[in-house]
Design a protein that fits this description.
The chain is α+β, with helices and mostly antiparallel strands and 197 residues long. It contains seven helices and five strands, in the order αβββαββααααα. Among the domains are: 79 residues, no CATH class; 49 residues, no CATH class. The radius of gyration is 31 Å and the shape is elongated. The chain has a three-stranded antiparallel sheet, with no helix packed on it. A two-stranded antiparallel ribbon has the order 1-2. Helix 3 runs antiparallel to helix 7. It is found in: Membrane.
């Protein structure tokens, strides 16, 4: 009889525990830390950081579509009036690369909390136009005396001069290899080298 009484007490304990857990899950008084409260006029309720929805601006890049950075082509006044955009493109070092913000939109059928169109800050002003460093270096070493490397980079005027002088009788050819390796000879359009993935 003592064993059946123990079994009844244990089962009653587990029933009460399940009942308490169910009541706790159904309460609306979820603790939201100070400073993390957000209200959305579209949805009409406050943001709950412990809820199922993520803030739209926190979604990963796979779920948003962003516009290309605005090109101001060196015009500081236009960038200051708009408040964002790129004045200068590219750079060899991280510190040289200008950063801007772009307009992003959440993709259809993705649920999130807040505005579905927002600004994403910290986007680097880098563009790629299909110039590979290794390919250009090979062109420079093998066919640099004909100016092929400069033709590929878009430096057409100097490429014709290099072609006519056969690489400046070899001097210009070697100087261009050195300039290319040290990062001084870059694509004419200001784009960066394509990453080798």
């Amino acid at each position: 009889m003592a064993a059946s009484l123990r079994a009844a007490v244990v089962s009653l304990f587990f029933i009460l525990l399940q009942f308490v857990l169910i009541l706790n899950l159904q309460t609306d008084n979820i603790y939201v830390p100070i400073g993390q409260e957000r209200y959305s006029e579209e949805e009409g309720y406050h943001y709950n950081p412990e809820g199922p929805l993520v803030l739209c601006e926190y979604l990963p890049e796979e779920f948003i579509g962003c516009e290309e950075p605005t090109d101001h082509d060196g015009n500081l006044t236009a960038r200051d009036e708009l408040g964002y955009g790129c004045v200068k493109w590219g750079g060899q070092k991280y510190d040289e690369v200008e950063k801007t913000k772009v307009v992003c939109r959440v993709l259809d059928y993705i649920e999130c909390f807040g505005n579905r169109t927002f600004f994403k800050d910290g986007v680097p002003c880098i563009k790629y136009t299909g110039h590979y460093f290794v390919v250009t270096l090979i062109y420079s070493v093998l066919l640099g005396f004909l100016g092929i490397d400069r033709f590929c980079l878009g430096h057409t005027g100097t490429a014709v001069g290099k072609l006519m002088t056969l690489g400046g009788v070899g001097i210009w050819w070697i100087v261009d290899i050195i300039l290319l390796v040290t990062g001084q000879l870059l694509p004419e359009d200001g784009s960066n080298w394509m990453p080798n993935y």
